[in-house]
Write a structure and sequence with these properties.
single chain, mainly beta, 8% helix, 4 strands, two-stranded antiparallel sheet, 71 residues
């Protein structure tokens, strides 16, 4: 299983896993605009702005993502 992160419709990062979790309860919480660093006592805010965010429950191709941008 590969999780891909696209920014502005282009691949920004990919993480490979040997298996997908069987249940959403097995996933860590989704954090947007923050990250949790084990060496810091609390969440740190990332300095950025976010105009659009979409999360799908199925894999989509880069073409499909780019076709639906800014709609």
């Amino acid at each position: 299983t590969v999780m891909r992160i696209l920014r502005d419709g282009y691949l920004d990062a990919a993480v490979e896993s040997e298996s997908a979790p069987e249940d959403a309860a097995d996933l860590p919480p989704l954090m947007i605009g923050t990250y949790l660093d084990k060496d810091l006592p609390s969440k740190e805010l990332l300095q950025m702005s976010l105009a659009e965010l979409r999360i799908w429950n199925k894999a989509r191709t880069q073409t499909e993502i780019m076709q639906d941008m800014h709609k």
